[in-house]
Amino acid sequence: MTNILINSESCSGCAICAGVCAYGILDIGSDGKILVKPGTEEFCGRCGQCEAICPEGAITVSYENAGPVPDFSGDRIPTSGEMARLITTRRSVRDYRKDLVPKETFEQIFDITRYAPTGMNGQSVQWLVIYDPDEVATLVAKVIEWAREIISTHPEEVLAPILPIFVSAYEHGLDKICHSAPHVVIAHSPAENPIGFVDAMIAMTHLDLIAPTFGLGTCWAGIVQGALRSSTEIRKSIGIPDGHVPHYAMMVGYPKYRFRRVPKRNTVKVTWK
Prior knowledge:
This protein is about 35% helix and about 15% strand.
C-alpha cells in the first residue's frame, strides 16, 4: 500500500508535482492546494517524482520496503569531464588480487544501484553475491562440467565453438571462466517480469561504473551466464530462488594491475533525422 501525504500548510499549489506524475494521480483542489484524486493512490508507481520535485517539500510518499533516502545536499553533480573519465577508463578486469572485498563495500554499492531506473519503477532486481572464493571455484567447476556436456551433446549451441578453449585452460590449471576473481555477483528477478532482463542490465551497468570508484574491478561473466541460462542444476546449486531468472553474472574484486592508457574504440555512428 502506497501512502501519499500532502502537507496543505506547506503546499503552494504550484502544481509542478501534478505535471510530473505519470499516472495523473495528483490534482489541484478547490482550495488551490494539491490533492490525491480519490481512488487513484493504488496506481502510484512509487517513483517519488512528486516528492523529489516539490519546491516546498510538502509531499511524502511512503510504502513498505522503502529504503533510506541518501542525503547529498551540498554535493555537486560530476562534470561531463569527470563522467567521461569514469566511463572511458573503465576496463574489464581479468586479473585479481586475492583480497576480499568487505561486505560493507558491497552494501554501499548495492545501496547506490537501487536507484538505477526500472520499467514502471518495478524495482524487481535482486542480487546474489557468491562471496566465498571457494564457492566461486565450485561454480567454475560446475560451469566446466556444463561446458563439456555442451561440447559433447549440443554442438549447435552458440557458445559451443569457444567452450573447448575454456575447458583446456581449466585442465591446465587456469581459470578462464571467472579469472580467479574472489567474488561473483548475479542479478536476478521474478520470471513474470517481462522487462526483468532490461532492468537487470541497467542495474548491472550502474554497478559496473560505480565499482571503480571503490577501487574495484569488474568483468561481465558471459560463460557463467550461458551456463546459468541453460542449467537448472547450476541455478539451484548457487541459490537462485524458484521462479526467478538469473539475468547476468559479474566478477568483482581488487585489480591486480593498473591500466595506464585508454584503448581505441570504433568511432560513433549516428543517423540524424
